[in-house]
Amino acid sequence: MSATRDAKLNSGVLRLGWVSFLSDVASDMIFPLLPDFLTRTLKAGPAAVGAIEGVAEATSSLMKVVSGAWSDRARRRKPLIVAGYSIAALARPLIGFAASWTEVLVIRFTDRIGKGIRTSPRDALLADLVAPESRGRAFGLQRAMDNAGAVVGPLLAAGLLKFAFEDERSVFLLAAVPGLAAVALLAFAVKEPPKARRDAATPRPAAGPLPRRLRMAIGIFVLFTLASSTDAFLILRASDAGVALWQLPLLWAFFNGVKAVAGVPGGALADRVGHVPAIVAGWTVYAVSYVGFAFVSTPAPIWGWFGFYALFYGLTEGAERALVADLAPPRLRGKAFGAFHASVGLASLPASILFGLWWKAFGPRSAFLIGASIAVAATVALLAFRSRSGPLRAVEERESAPI
Predict the structure, then answer these.
(1) Cβ-contact 153, 26 below 8 angstroms
(2) Across the chain, what does the average pLDDT equal?
(3) How far apart are CA 146 and CA 22, in angstroms?
(4) How far is the C-alpha of 19 from the C-alpha of 12, rounded, in Å?
(5) Per-residue pLDDT for 390 more than 60?
(6) pLDDT tens sequence across 63-75
(7) Which of 1, 143, 204, 214 could form a disulfide with 327 if both were Cys (CB 3.0 to 4.6 A apart)?
């Protein structure tokens, strides 16, 4: 691969990162304010909040399957990605006009359709743009930019509410600006390699089942996800430990900041030591963190545990996607990412529900310790998978030449 082509591919990866950053700024200008808006302004109850987010996540997960397989058959992935970002960018700000929680439900449903349409083709495009040995860094950069947007969005919303506006509706409407900027950057600045080039490595048709090893890996990811409940429980734990209400947004921004900083080094580490070892390290951090959250009882240690827990994302978010790309033939890569995102997304729903029920019945310490135990079980399963599969990258290079 020539130096010139490397420069172009690196530029494409960086621009996709900025698209993720701008889109997450828009999303996180809204999301942290949404529960208060629903319960205080629209007089909805907690059940309505749960129903809205449950429908939203399930919709997104199911759409990722459809869009991933669709992008494998399409001549280009980019139009699907542009469509997904556009739907979300136009739908999200409409919450500013909502008069009832059912209207918010429809808007969130539409927003998550957009997210579901774009995610699998975007990840497949990112894998198309880089050689296998650089995928950990590429996905790590994408996740780091995404997490950076999750820091800037809440801080921007807080600043607007403190110095410019008195209610959330104006902030919701202004979220259209970074959202549409993300669409424009994607449409005019990100170039896609021709389908002929990405398919040239293999004559196999796009249709067909995913490789057995990939299905096994996704099954292990699902097992881990059963331990991975929503991070909202961490905020609740911080509140129980005595963190003041006004400090909770700052704690969340700090958490996302560490995630952003850890993303690229974590992806680079995965490229050096291997994607499975990086995931194992991240899942170990997760298990240790959950043990820490189980026993924490004062505000000061909470900040340290949040920072340590954020390393889990830096070690795993890029490495997990890179491992999926390693195990998927190029023509099935979109379908593979769709299966990965859908399986993990759907598994997160019962994970959060069961965690909450266990918290209510037996207390937070027991719930966190059970989550840590499941994470350890998934880590052992992944190590066993690696010992049976051998050097995963070498297997992929036999199946298909680098793009």
Answers:
(1) yes
(2) 80
(3) 8
(4) 11
(5) no
(6) 877 776 677 777 7
(7) 214
- Among the listed residues 287, 308, 301, 288, the one whose alpha carbon sits nearest the alpha carbon of residue 241: 301
Task: Reply yes or no on whether the pLDDT at 1 is more than 60.
Answer: no
Kindly report, residue by residue over 198-234, the tens digit of the pLDDT. 454 434 444 567 788 889 999 999 999 888 877 767 8
Cα separation, 325 vs 312, whole angstroms: 20
Write out pLDDT tens, residues 116-133: 888 878 888 888 888 777
Tell me the H-state helices in 164-247. 168-174, 176-189, 195-199, 212-225, 232-240
Q: Residue 236 CA to chain centroid, in angstroms?
A: 21
What residue segments make up the domains of the chain, in order of their start?
3-188+209-399
Q: Which residue has the tokens 């136009």?
A: 90
Quick one: 209 exposed, middle or buried, by C-beta within 10 A (0-12, 13-18, 19+)? exposed
pLDDT by residue (tens digit) across 255-279? 888 887 887 787 778 778 888 899 9
Architecture per CATH, domain 3-188+209-399, reads as Up-down Bundle (1.20)
| Residue 341 · residue 119 · CB < 8 Å | yes
Contact 339, 218 (CB under 8 A): yes
What confidence score (pLDDT) does residue 396 get? 42
Q: Which of 186, 156, 162 lies closest to 174 in space, CA to CA?
A: 156
CB 107 within 8 A of CB 37: no
Task: Give, as one character, the DSSP assignment of residue 275.
Answer: H
CA distance 179 to 89: 5
**Tokens 């920072």 sit on residue:** 307
Give yes or no for residue 381 having a pLDDT over 80.
yes
CA distance 95 to 106: 10
Measured CA to CA, the distance from residue 218 to residue 206 in angstroms comes to: 19
Q: If you search the block for the tokens 């403190």, which residue do you land on? A: 162
What number of residues does the chain have?
403
